[in-house]
Specification:
The protein is an all-alpha fold and 95 residues long. The protein has helices spanning 18-27, 32-94.
Amino acid sequence: SSDLAPVWRPAPRKSFSLCAAMADSMAMPTGLKGKLASLEDFISMQNEELAAQRQEIEALRGDKSNIEQHYQGQLQEMKKTMVADVQRMQEEVKK
């Protein structure tokens, strides 16, 4: 039986920090339009990060499902082997 190879995936990206956003906001124009544009950029970045994290969660769910199926198959094989071994041993005892 083949061992399940580990799945390589790049390290998750660091989330956009609110502190960095606030530091950026200090450098932005004080006008309402500038503040709105900056807030829109921040929201857009947060949405991108959320989408990336959702993709990562889906990938992990897929990995989990594959691993569960793999080990379920191994368990079934072990059960079959053990039943066959017990039957063989019972036959040998009867001889």
